[in-house]
Design brief:
- This protein is α/β, with parallel strands linked by helices.
- It is built from five helices and seven strands; from the N terminus they run E-H-E-H-H-E-H-E-H-E-E-E.
- The strands form two sheets. The protein has a five-stranded parallel beta sheet with strand order 1-2-3-4-5. A two-stranded antiparallel ribbon has the order 6-7.
- Helix 4 runs parallel beside helix 5.
- The longest helix is centred in the N-terminal third of the chain and has 21 residues.
- The radius of gyration is 20 Å and the shape is globular.
- It starts with 11 loop residues before the first strand and ends in an 8-residue tail after the last strand.
């Protein structure tokens, strides 16, 4: 705001969503970790340039729930699966932690103290389409043994129309309430993304009602419609 402070409603900023799938991919941890820490370093520089004062929000990096086979550090800390692979997401998080403490390991020289930032203002996060029981057995127990920074699930939803979503949500929220580090979840997502198509349309609590609009407006020269929403139902008729 004009006083150089973060808005009271803002608690956390996602630096980047699923960098392990983008920078350039899960097979190149040094590259996507270098991209992440350089982005964080730049954001901290921006805070200084804007003379940000008062409460500082936390930053998070949201990894996928993929298995990082090339993330070697985690393999020394956990029990590996039958194929010799580490648990999902944890490899990426461990590589990031190591780079925050020693940026030179990915060939980066920071302008800011990334170690102090990591300990004071950083939280881990990930996206998953797995049910609650998987989070407890595949991730959380090991995470709480290895890490001290909080973690959250930014995109949570297993799109299975035969599964009781209400029961699963109650279970994951109970797990979070009993955990010292899992802060909670964000359900994915509010509305169906028809523009993505395919399996992406399996997500979304609400869809658009056919042939029922309540307003039209001009959008860069095009006339577009605002559709009413309708709940999405599973195979048992549950919204």
């Amino acid at each position: 705001n004009q006083e150089g402070q973060y808005h009271d409603s803002l608690a956390e900023i996602i630096v980047i969503n699923e960098p392990d799938l983008k920078l350039p991919g899960i097979e190149e941890p040094n590259y996507f970790i270098k991209g992440v820490i350089s982005a964080i370093d730049g954001m901290l520089d921006a805070e200084k340039e804007l003379h940000v004062t008062g409460r500082k929000v936390t930053f998070t990096v949201t990894f996928s729930f993929a298995i990082c086979k090339k993330c070697e550090a985690i393999k020394k800390l956990v029990k590996l699966g039958p194929t010799g692979d580490p648990p999902p997401a944890l490899g990426q998080m461990e590589e990031l932690r190591l780079a925050m403490f020693d940026p030179s390991r990915v060939g980066y020289k920071p302008k800011n103290n990334l170690t102090r930032f990591y300990l004071e203002r950083f939280t881990n996060s990930f996206n998953t389409a797995n049910p609650a029981e998987d989070i407890e057995t595949m991730f959380l127990g090991t995470y709480e043994r290895l890490f001290e920074v909080p973690v959250s699930i930014q995109e949570y939803h297993k799109p299975d129309k035969k599964m009781d979503q209400e029961a699963d949500l109650k279970k994951i929220l109970h797990i979070a309430s009993q955990s010292r580090l899992l802060k909670g979840i964000s359900f994915f997502e509010f509305q169906v993304r028809y523009d993505k198509g395919g399996s992406e349309e399996d997500f979304g609590m609400f869809g658009l009602r056919d042939n029922y609009t309540f307003q039209t407006w001009s959008y860069f020269g095009d006339t577009v419609s605002a559709f009413c929403l309708e709940p999405r139902y599973d195979d048992m008729g549950r919204a």
